[in-house]
Design a protein that fits this description.
This protein is an alpha+beta fold. It has helices at 32-44, 136-151, 205-213, 216-224, 249-253, 271-281, 308-319, 331-356, 396-409, 469-472, 475-482, 531-540, 570-574; strands at 2-6, 52-56, 70-76, 87-93, 113-125, 160-161, 176-181, 188-190, 193-203, 259-260, 327-328, 362-365, 367-371, 457-460, 463-468, 488-493, 499-503, 518-521, 524-528, 554-558, 563-568.
Length: 578
């Protein structure tokens, strides 16, 4: 539970935890990590020294359910001249190390990240007449923080979160999230390490899919160009009813693209005359009307048979502020032009995927795999992961290698390399990352982790991959956006401790090879696919891009490759969670 109160003195304190890693005690009662973040907030909001806060009644370190100690809420006036509306700015306290005494986060030194190394922020458009900030974003941030604490998976700029529900529990189309750097909050050096600020950006389902298929940064850049979809500071508007694929960002900037049913030159049309058809058509909501042009064009020059490229040229001119054509109120022509621009925006995303590939290197998913090259009851080395049976656990080193795989996958300009399984690495991590305090797949259950050195890598003859519908819809992304660009993609199961990594022939460090394309290291399966086979699979899996058009279960098979893929209902995987 949480309560709303003005910010002030911090809550109850706990004595420093014993141990060699505990830093020196601080004389001030105000926690140093908290003080450092407050300092950045005061820099940004000097006139709001005591903002409203949502605070956890029972702190996480005292057994409470909420990992964030506080969420502060500020009123930001924005910048009307830059298309930045007034909004509420939410800032979390708790993902970083606030106290430095090991009550929540292990102190690892001042040079690395503080705690998880970041705090969350969120910008919500202020509604007219709204005098106090809504508190639902604080609970949203607590939900994301619980995921981070429970999984130990941190967020990075460009990441996406599939939420599948309106963020404010309304009927809004804003049902998912992207993450980016906060445009105003600067990184903070605290006594316990560095803290950066990641901003939550609410997006529609279509925008999430585009981020998955291309990359989060690319979609964020598109959102920045559209004021009502986020604008320069990526402010979330829960009332937004259109996606960026339904909004023309160029038209939003245009001051000369209007309708008229008049036979006079457009430059002579009155504002009231051109605005009536606009309201009636309802196509160009939010456009600014004008009454004069430098180069007026009459209706006689317009016609239903105008070439789409000519129309697009006029819109481009308008977006740059150049003289442009004004369209008549013919609905079919207007619909045609709108579709043309939707298609152009989609083509930009498709071109981005083709040229740059995707920077999404893996997902947590409902998935499983079976080894079809032997009887299911043969369970000597745990390489078979069967739905309906208790899956074996990944070793700590395998877990860390998969984590490193996902992290390195975001570095799209570096050479694609799977980190080697190396027992000499400290805590299973490379030098450029802080040691993990706990493997994310560990639990308090009695299930034993198979000793890493006792698991041998096995070559498999035939495999069966199983995904739920959402995970299966990402297979074309895996193939087109990752493997065709010489990269890798990992599905990490949320229903059992197992993983499936697809690799291309250009990825170094994989234990799957062209000679033995299916290989398993305990419950971690790697599948190496050649470019020729990837192209074949993309043809056969084309209907996965429109999953609403087929019924489950759905099966695909390539007998010559001894590979089978099944798309199954969620209930099959959900049974493993209970």
């Amino acid at each position: 539970m949480a309560e709303l109160r003005p910010s002030g003195a911090p809550g109850p304190t706990a004595p420093p935890a014993p141990g060699p890693t505990a830093p020196p005690a601080f004389a001030s009662l105000f926690p140093p990590g908290l003080h450092a973040i407050y300092g950045e907030c005061r820099r940004l909001y000097p006139d709001q020294p005591n903002p409203l806060q949502v605070t956890a009644i029972v702190k996480y370190w005292l057994g409470g359910p909420d990992p964030l100690d506080y969420v502060s809420m500020y009123r930001n006036v924005g910048s009307p001249s830059a298309n930045i509306p007034e909004h509420w700015h939410y800032i979390s306290f708790g993902l970083s190390d606030l106290y430095g005494d090991n009550r929540v986060h292990e102190f690892t030194g001042t040079d690395g990240p503080s705690g998880f190394g970041f705090e969350l922020t969120f910008r919500l458009k202020r509604e007219t007449g709204e005098s106090a900030p809504p508190t639902w974003p604080a609970e949203l941030m607590q939900g994301l923080a619980r995921y981070v604490f429970q999984s130990e998976n941190t967020f990075c700029s460009g990441d996406h979160v599939s939420w599948h529900s309106p963020l404010d529990n309304s009927e809004s189309r804003i049902q998912h999230m992207l993450l980016t750097e906060d445009p105003q909050m600067q990184p903070v050096q605290t006594p316990f390490g560095v803290v950066t600020f990641l901003q939550i950006v609410g997006v529609c389902t279509e925008e999430l899919h585009a981020a998955q298929q291309w990359n989060g940064q690319g979609i964020l850049e598109l959102l920045r160009t559209v004021p009502i979809a986020g604008g320069p500071w990526l402010i979330t508007d829960m009332r937004r009813g259109e996606t960026i694929f339904e909004i023309d960002p160029h038209l939003q900037k245009s001051q000369v693209f209007v309708f008229s049913s008049s036979s006079r030159p457009f430059g002579e049309c009155l504002d009231s005359e051109v605005s009536r058809p606009v309201r009636r058509q309802g196509l160009w909501w939010g456009l600014k009307m004008v009454t004069a042009l430098q180069a007026p064009v009459s209706v006689s020059e317009m016609g239903k048979n105008l070439h789409p490229e000519f129309l697009a040229k006029q819109v481009s001119n308008a977006a740059r502020g150049s003289p442009a054509l004004l369209l008549s109120g013919d609905s079919s022509l207007c619909d045609h032009t709108l579709c043309c621009w939707k298609r152009k925006l989609q083509e930009r995303v498709d071109k981005g995927i083709e040229t740059d590939g995707s920077n999404l290197s893996g997902v947590s998913a409902k998935c499983a795999w079976d080894d079809l090259s032997r009887p299911p009851e043969d369970d000597e080395d745990s390489r078979s992961i069967c739905i309906g049976t208790q899956p074996r656990r990944l070793s700590g080193k395998d877990t860390e290698q998969i984590r490193e795989t996902l992290r390195r996958g975001l570095e799209i300009n570096s050479k694609p390399v799977l980190p080697p399984i190396n027992p000499q690495r400290q805590n299973g991590l490379t030098h450029d990352r802080a040691p993990s305090r706990k493997d994310s797949l560990e639990s308090d259950s009695s299930t034993a982790i198979i000793p890493h050195e006792l698991i041998r890598t096995r070559q498999l003859e035939s495999v069966h991959l199983k995904f739920n519908q959402e995970s299966g819809a990402l297979i074309p992304l895996c193939l087109r956006g990752r493997l065709l660009h010489g990269r890798h993609f990992t599905y990490k199961s949320i229903t059992g401790d197992m993983a499936i990594t697809f690799v291309s022939t250009g990825v170094e460090g994989a234990f799957a090879t062209e000679e033995h394309p299916y290989a398993a290291h305990g419950p971690w399966l790697q599948i190496l696919l050649t470019e020729e086979f990837v192209e074949k699979m993309l043809e056969d899996l084309e209907d996965l891009t429109s999953p609403e058009e087929f019924k489950l279960p759905k099966e695909y098979s390539w007998p010559e490759k001894k590979l089978k893929v099944s798309i199954l209902p969620d209930v099959v995987f959900d049974s493993l969670l209970h």
